[in-house]
Design goal:
Blueprint: E1 2-5, E2 8-10, E3 16-22, E4 31-37, E5 44-50, E6 56-58, E7 66-71, E8 76-81, E9 90-97, E10 111-112, E11 116-120
Parallel strand pairs: 2-11
Antiparallel strand pairs: 1-3, 3-8, 4-5, 4-9, 5-6, 7-8, 9-10, 9-11
């Protein structure tokens, strides 16, 4: 099971930290991806961490503003989002991939959370 939390409403320039907690399996060899879907737009890969090889990737649109991290003890992955802008408004999803390699293609991730809404508005 994959569960996201931490979404909410913030003003432009604000910050939020999303959490992705898994249960039923350990993340040791997985890849964890954060995706988002904005109204009227296709799903977009935001960031990914490969626990297997240590790879971390970010979409160009969030580089320098978002940071992905992991808490080994909590079996959780986080997405720290700073300098949020209205274009970051979307439902954010966490997903896991057993193969352990990052990909921008959401369809290769097997387990998905229910999503958490992030709204950036003044």
């Amino acid at each position: 099971q994959v569960v996201e939390s931490g979404g909410g409403s913030v003003q432009p320039g604000g910050s939020l930290r999303l959490s992705c907690t898994t249960s039923g399996f350990k993340l040791d060899l997985y890849a964890i991806g954060w995706f988002r879907r904005a109204p009227g737009k296709e799903r977009e890969g935001v960031s990914c961490m490969s626990i297997k090889d240590g790879t971390i990737v970010y979409a160009d649109s969030v580089k320098g503003r978002f940071t992905i991290s992991r808490d080994f003890s909590m079996n959780s992955v986080y997405l720290q989002m700073d300098s949020l802008q209205p274009e970051d408004t979307a439902v954010y999803y966490c997903a896991t991939r057993a193969l352990g390699l990052c990909s921008p293609r959401g369809e290769v991730f097997e387990n998905w959370g229910q999503g958490t809404q992030v709204t950036v508005s003044s």
